[in-house]
Amino acid sequence: MSQLAPFIEEFVKECAATRRILERVPEDRFGWKPHDKSMGLGQLASHIAENPQWAAWVVNDDVLDMGPDTYKPFMAKDRDELLKTFDMNVIDARKALESAEEGAVSNTWRMKWEGNVVIEAPRMEVLRSFLVSHLIHHRGQLTVYLRMNDVPLPQIYGPTADEQM
Hints:
The chain has helices spanning 5-22, 41-50, 54-60, 79-99, 123-148; strands at residues 63-66, 108-113, 116-122. The chain has a three-stranded mixed β-sheet. By secondary structure, it is mostly helical. It has a single domain (5-148), classed as dinb family like domain (Four Helix Bundle (Hemerythrin (Met), subunit A), Up-down Bundle). The chain contains five helices and three strands, in the order αααβαββα. Strand 2 (108-113) and strand 3 (116-122) form a beta hairpin. The two termini are 33 Å apart. Helix 1 (5-22) runs antiparallel to helix 4, helix 2 packs antiparallel against helix 5 (123-148) and helix 3 packs parallel to helix 4.
């Protein structure tokens, strides 16, 4: 069994739960914000949809140099584009993870922001924190946004007030 196999299985399960949430995002509320300092609902959902692409960056590159000149955040125009982008990114992420060399996940990976190192850690740690934990964190935020807009929430780890087992 691959060293990454249990991680890939967890990632796929979390992505399935995330998709169930993204399916509920109301297009007519993309610009809604719970607070002036918060991301808009569409922006947050778009950020979640692009999150899985980090897997390929972490597995395939030693350094990712980000900044306003090199990184343009994805912003879906509608729910269909949101879901298509998420699905494509999950497929690409899974391929990257499944093709990763066994020992490579121990190697150091770096993310730079405008040339300054902001993350430097073993790839496996980055995959755990910046891929899966980051996805779960923002998915949790999105469920609050949806609840505040009276959108019924699907099950993630168990029943919700809207869906019972």
